[in-house]
Amino acid sequence: MPRLVPAEWSPHRAMWLGFPSHGDLWLDHYEAAQAEVAALALALAGPGAERVRLMVCGDEAEATARLLIGAAPGIELVRAQFGDVWLRDTGPIFLKKGEADLAEGFVFNGWGGKYDFPGDELVADQIAAASGVPLEMADFILEGGSLDHDGFGEMLTTRQCLLNPNRNPGWTEAEAEAALARTLGAKRVHWLDDGLANDHTDGHVDNLARFVAPGVVACPIAFGRADPNADLYDQTARQLSGYKTERGAPLQVVRVASPGRIEDEDGQAVPASHMNFLIANEAVIVPLYDQTSGPYAVEALRSLFPERTVIGLPSKAILTGGGSFHCISQQEPA
């Protein structure tokens, strides 16, 4: 029976979000990260027209979430066990198997063994059970943020992540493509080389390039002279321009201003990206990082999603954990 992962812009039954629940992982950024996630949930439930299912772990985190969310309609707190909030990677990928709903789970090894948090291996089971969707577990390692989908079986990914020996040692492109076809219905995989500098996910594509319509891909263009990924962005655009869809049409490439160079407290460049936007039913939420390119990115995405409200929200505290809005979410297709 054919399988297909719906595009993110397809209608959703719900949007799952992870709420920061472990202060020892976030340190001085804990309360700010919680506030940013709460603001995201409110935007999704309001202009985004989503049923938000906010996963919380523990009494203290639940109480904080309730305080921040207030009586806002459309947001449901779901008690769960998890190590950290990155549901895009620890949760399942929802797909259609024929006319039926299916949740596909994968082996999770902490992004190549870097971060092994108890409870993360339970997330796929919990989300699938709460959704009432059957869960099928694949026998290989994969994180959802390493892929992007157009809804017709076309996928984006990076060699740096999918072929990394810290995931599935010895994998070739052909073996990876066969695994994606078997589990997620991939018809064509468009390979990029590397992801952003200093990205602990080893180059997740949802920080680099995203489908915004069938056959149309957005990727960054450098902002400012110190942008650490300037050459990578240009290389990515060239690679994408050389690909064709399964239907034989060249991919159309749209460039969106990057955040430029964003640094941590030690002066090291961090993998900030506007490409980590989240497509909701009636809105697109764009992460901002206290930098001047934000309005340009928001305007560019407004031109790409004219039927949706495009909203920029702060994500600087969430970024200290290594990701942003797309990373902490997972859509449940209608």
Q: How would you explain this protein's 3D organization?
A:
It is a single chain. This protein has 334 residues and is α/β, with parallel strands linked by helices. It has a single domain (3-333), classed as 5-stranded Propeller (L-arginine/glycine Amidinotransferase, Chain A), CATH 3.75.10. The chain has eleven helices and 17 strands. The chain has helices at residues 23-26, 30-45, 59-69, 87-90, 110-113, 123-131, 159-162, 173-184, 230-241, 294-304, 316-319, and strands at 3-4, 12-18, 52-56, 75-79, 93-97, 100-107, 135-141, 148-149, 154-158, 188-192, 210-213, 216-221, 252-257, 278-279, 283-288, 309-314, 329-333. A four-stranded mixed β-sheet has the order 1-5-6-7, with helices on both faces. Strands 4-3-2-17 form a four-stranded mixed β-sheet, covered by helices on one side. Helix 10 (294-304) links the parallel strand 15 (283-288) and strand 16. Helix 2 (30-45) crosses helix 3. The model has no long low-confidence stretch (mean pLDDT 97).
- CATH C-level: Alpha Beta
Q: Which regions have little confidence, pLDDT < 50, spanning 5+ residues?
A: none
CATH topology grouping: L-arginine/glycine Amidinotransferase, Chain A
Number of helices: 11
Estimated share of beta-strand residues: 25-35%
CATH architecture: 5-stranded Propeller
Order of helices and strands: EEHHEHEHEEHHEEEHHEEEHEEEHEHE
Q: Classify the secondary structure makeup into a structural class.
A: alpha/beta
The figure for the number of domains is 1
**What is the CATH superfamily?**
L-arginine/glycine Amidinotransferase, Chain A
Mean pLDDT: 97
The radius of gyration over CA amounts to 18 Å
Write down how many β-strands occur, each being a DSSP E stretch of 2 or more residues.
17
Estimate the helix proportion, in percent.
25-40%
**What about the largest sheet?**
4 strands, mixed
Shape: globular
Side-by-side strand order of the widest sheet: 1-5-6-7
User: What is the terminal separation in angstroms?
Assistant: 19 Å
